[in-house]
Write a structure and sequence with these properties.
The protein has a domain of about 40 residues. Helices cover about 60% and strands about 0% of the residues. The protein contains 4 helices and no strands. The longest helix has 24 residues. The radius of gyration is 38 Å and the shape is elongated.
Protein backbone atom coordinates (compact mmCIF):
# COMPACT_ATOMS: atom_id res chain seq x y z
CA UNK A 1 0.00 0.00 0.00
CA UNK A 2 2.82 2.42 0.86
CA UNK A 3 4.49 1.76 -2.48
CA UNK A 4 1.23 2.55 -4.30
CA UNK A 5 0.76 5.85 -2.44
CA UNK A 6 4.41 6.75 -3.03
CA UNK A 7 3.96 6.10 -6.77
CA UNK A 8 0.82 8.31 -6.86
CA UNK A 9 2.44 11.17 -4.94
CA UNK A 10 5.80 10.96 -6.72
CA UNK A 11 5.38 9.18 -10.07
CA UNK A 12 8.82 10.24 -11.32
CA UNK A 13 10.90 9.23 -8.34
CA UNK A 14 14.47 8.43 -9.48
CA UNK A 15 14.77 5.61 -6.92
CA UNK A 16 11.71 3.84 -8.29
CA UNK A 17 11.33 2.52 -11.80
CA UNK A 18 11.76 4.98 -14.66
CA UNK A 19 8.58 5.90 -16.46
CA UNK A 20 8.96 4.74 -20.06
CA UNK A 21 6.59 7.36 -21.48
CA UNK A 22 8.50 10.15 -19.69
CA UNK A 23 11.78 8.86 -21.11
CA UNK A 24 10.26 8.79 -24.60
CA UNK A 25 9.04 12.36 -24.19
CA UNK A 26 12.46 13.49 -22.96
CA UNK A 27 14.16 11.93 -25.99
CA UNK A 28 11.63 13.51 -28.36
CA UNK A 29 12.18 16.89 -26.71
CA UNK A 30 15.95 16.56 -27.07
CA UNK A 31 15.56 15.69 -30.75
CA UNK A 32 13.18 18.63 -31.35
CA UNK A 33 15.51 21.06 -29.55
CA UNK A 34 18.48 19.78 -31.56
CA UNK A 35 16.57 20.18 -34.84
CA UNK A 36 15.48 23.70 -33.86
CA UNK A 37 19.07 24.64 -33.06
CA UNK A 38 20.27 23.32 -36.44
CA UNK A 39 17.52 25.20 -38.25
CA UNK A 40 18.27 28.44 -36.42
CA UNK A 41 21.97 28.12 -37.23
CA UNK A 42 21.16 27.69 -40.92
CA UNK A 43 18.66 30.52 -41.10
CA UNK A 44 20.50 32.97 -38.89
CA UNK A 45 24.23 32.46 -39.18
CA UNK A 46 26.05 33.93 -36.25
CA UNK A 47 28.47 36.43 -37.66
CA UNK A 48 30.32 38.86 -35.51
CA UNK A 49 29.50 42.35 -36.69
CA UNK A 50 30.15 45.83 -35.42
CA UNK A 51 26.66 47.00 -36.23
CA UNK A 52 24.53 48.03 -33.28
CA UNK A 53 21.38 45.98 -32.75
CA UNK A 54 18.30 47.23 -34.54
CA UNK A 55 15.82 48.83 -32.20
CA UNK A 56 12.25 47.73 -32.64
CA UNK A 57 9.82 50.61 -32.58
CA UNK A 58 6.91 49.99 -30.28
CA UNK A 59 3.68 51.90 -30.26
CA UNK A 60 3.75 54.45 -27.50
CA UNK A 61 0.66 55.24 -25.52
CA UNK A 62 -0.09 58.83 -24.70
CA UNK A 63 -1.54 59.96 -21.45
CA UNK A 64 -4.84 61.77 -21.57
CA UNK A 65 -3.25 65.10 -20.64
CA UNK A 66 -0.81 64.93 -23.57
CA UNK A 67 -3.53 63.78 -25.98
CA UNK A 68 -5.79 66.64 -24.79
CA UNK A 69 -3.03 69.19 -25.37
CA UNK A 70 -2.45 67.87 -28.88
CA UNK A 71 -6.16 68.05 -29.74
CA UNK A 72 -6.46 71.57 -28.35
CA UNK A 73 -3.41 72.69 -30.34
CA UNK A 74 -4.90 71.23 -33.54
CA UNK A 75 -8.22 72.96 -32.87
CA UNK A 76 -6.52 76.32 -32.30
CA UNK A 77 -4.61 75.88 -35.57
CA UNK A 78 -7.83 75.09 -37.46
CA UNK A 79 -9.55 78.13 -35.93
CA UNK A 80 -6.63 80.38 -36.92
CA UNK A 81 -6.72 79.10 -40.50
CA UNK A 82 -10.49 79.63 -40.71
CA UNK A 83 -10.07 83.23 -39.49
CA UNK A 84 -7.46 83.94 -42.14
CA UNK A 85 -9.67 82.74 -45.01
CA UNK A 86 -10.91 85.83 -46.87
CA UNK A 87 -14.61 86.51 -46.63
CA UNK A 88 -16.52 87.35 -49.79
CA UNK A 89 -16.81 91.11 -50.17
CA UNK A 90 -19.98 91.08 -52.23
CA UNK A 91 -23.31 90.60 -50.56
CA UNK A 92 -25.87 88.04 -51.56
CA UNK A 93 -28.23 90.73 -52.89
CA UNK A 94 -25.67 92.09 -55.35
CA UNK A 95 -24.96 88.59 -56.61
CA UNK A 96 -28.70 87.96 -57.08
CA UNK A 97 -29.00 91.18 -59.12
CA UNK A 98 -26.14 90.05 -61.36
CA UNK A 99 -27.78 86.71 -61.95
CA UNK A 100 -31.24 88.24 -62.44
CA UNK A 101 -32.93 86.36 -59.66
Amino acid sequence: MIKFIHHILEPHCPECQICQSCETLRRQLEIANHNNELLMNRLLPREESNQPPVEISRPKTLSWAVRKQMLEREDRERARIMKEVPTPSESVESLEKDLGV
